[in-house]
Amino acid sequence: MTNRVCRLKSRPFGMSTRENFEIADEPMPTPGPGEFRVKVHAVSLDPAMRGWMAEGRSYVQPVALGDVMRAYAAGIVEESNHEAFRPGDAVMGLFGVQEHAVSDGTFVHKIDPAQAPMERWVGGLGMPGWTAYFGTMEILHPEAGQTLVVSAASGAVGSLVGQIGKLRGATVIGIAGGAEKCRYVTEELGFDAAIDYKAEDVEKRLVELAPDRVHMYFENVGGKIGNAVMHRMATFGRVAVCGLISSYNETDPAKVGYDAGAQRSILVNRLKIQGFIVFDFAKQMREAIGHLGKWHAEGKLKMREDVREGGVDAFPEALNMLYTGENFGKLVLKL
Ligand SMILES: NC(=O)c1ccc[n+]([C@@H]2O[C@H](COP(=O)([O-])OP(=O)(O)OC[C@H]3O[C@@H](n4cnc5c(N)ncnc54)[C@H](OP(=O)(O)O)[C@@H]3O)[C@@H](O)[C@H]2O)c1
């Protein structure tokens, strides 16, 4: 009757290491009045976790030193004093990197394991899917005949952005690292083209693939890739800044940010650039859940998970796969 838990011990400088975490067996938590306990089966590993560990102003409070590492996760209610959540219910929520979590139901969604496996509910049918949906539909507003470029194109968010863009009639170009990921987005997901940024000159390829320039850019990575796409934006182009993963572990602030050419493009092309966090759209969440579920059931949205074994103890190394591109699809830790 113990609970394996991963707590944040110290704040990382650069890439986090095992030394930044304390992983130990703790007594099994007991749900109080109005609470329930979940057996966690799938922990979502998200690029945002690096930001959650850092001090400084952000869109959420950092994880406090000594706290359970924050994580989205899916599992089954095993004991409950809550009227709406009963033993056996499958749920998804911010349960943290631990085997068992107690919750009062805040931000917890019920999920249907018959519709899709646990790992998909923290992936394409969960937060990354909602992110792709809102960033594409509410910020980029894809239009037929226009070109949409998405970076980290084979990943949890990017793979859905491109597919939603195609459903809305746009021409979609994905940027990803390596031939296999590029083949996946074109041949399996139906993107019009892919650029392997590890082997090709992104800007040159955009000149060839999008001679009328880029109308919409879904920014997931920033850095050199972000600059290359910004240089090729069309007049009155739209940019949804979803993430800047290339900078999350960067320790030299001088290496982060758009270059002079990108900044000039903002002005001369009169770009509309909007950063967003998925929960800005909390009031419309039902809409995203409905559309993603329907398109998924109809076979119009393909989703891929990269499920890693090893339990809570594997968390520190598994997380870093996101920043080295070792993951291929939504990265999930199986407990
Ligand atoms: N705003 C929001 O509310 C929100 C919500 C969820 C996610 N996000 C953001 O969305 C982005 C994608 O997240 P995800 O969960 O879908 O992750 P993911 O794409 O499944 O995995 C991360 C991928 O990023 C790429 N990458 C890592 N380091 C890179 C670098 N230095 N340069 C270029 N590419 C790099 C790698 O793909 P390659 O092998 O192709 O390089 C890696 O596989 C992240 O920036 C994340 O922070 C934002």
What do you see in this structure?
This protein is globular. Helix 3 (127-140) packs across helix 4 (158-167), helix 3 (127-140) packs across helix 9 (285-297) and helix 7 packs parallel to helix 8 (260-268). It contains 10 helices and 15 strands. The protein has helices at 48-52, 118-121, 127-140, 158-167, 179-188, 202-209, 223-231, 260-268, 285-297, 315-324; strands at residues 2-8, 21-27, 36-44, 73-80, 90-93, 100-103, 109-110, 147-151, 171-176, 193-196, 214-219, 233-241, 272-275, 305-308, 330-334. Strand 8 (147-151), helix 4 and strand 9 form a beta-alpha-beta unit. Helix content is 27%, strand content 25%. The chain starts with a strand and ends with a strand. The chain is an alpha/beta fold and 335 residues long. Strands 3, 4, 5, 6, 7, 14 and 15 form a 7-stranded mixed beta sheet that branches. A 6-stranded parallel beta sheet has the order 10-9-8-11-12-13, with helices on both faces. The chain binds NADP nicotinamide-adenine-dinucleotide phosphate (NAP).
What characterizes the major β-sheet?
7 strands, mixed
Helix/sheet category: alpha/beta
CATH topology of the largest domain: Quinone Oxidoreductase, Chain A, domain 1
Q: Report the principal-axis shape.
A: globular
E-strand count? 15
CATH superfamily of the largest domain: Medium-chain alcohol dehydrogenases, catalytic domain
CATH class of the largest domain: Alpha Beta
Name of the CATH architecture of the largest domain? Alpha-Beta Complex
Which ligands, by name, code or SMILES, are bound?
NADP nicotinamide-adenine-dinucleotide phosphate
Share of helix, binned: 25-40%
Fraction in beta strands: 25-35%
* Topology order in helix (H) and strand (E) letters: EEEHEEEEHHEHEHEHEHEHEHEHE
The radius of gyration over CA amounts to 20 Å
Helical stretch tally: 10
Q: Give the uncertain stretches in residue-range form.
A: none
Look at the structure and give the mean pLDDT.
Answer: 97
Query: Could you tell me how far the N terminus lies from the C terminus, measured between alpha carbons in angstroms?
Result: 16 Å
Number of domains: 2
